[in-house]
Amino acid sequence: MAAFDIKKLLQSVVTHGASDLHLVSRTEPQIRLDGVLKPVNLPTLTGDDIEEMCYSLITEKQKQQFEEYDELDFALLLPGIGRFRANY
Description:
Elements: H1 6-16, E1 20-22, E2 30-33, E3 36-39, H2 47-55, H3 60-69, E4 73-78, E5 82-87
């Protein structure tokens, strides 16, 4: 199981007024505040952590598309939190 809850990370983006959340393997999550990337005080992510978080948000069809093209753009609506655009 991933050490992180992607929905809580996205809530943190909204709470801090950040414009982006960056998830990169072997680094800690980062948010973009006023055009500058700032690390979130959380442990480093693995590729498996990122994959598990992203796969928890997408449909089976989207998973197949990602596995075929090695890229996926999608929108996500989290009621009470906000609407997000993602590139994986």
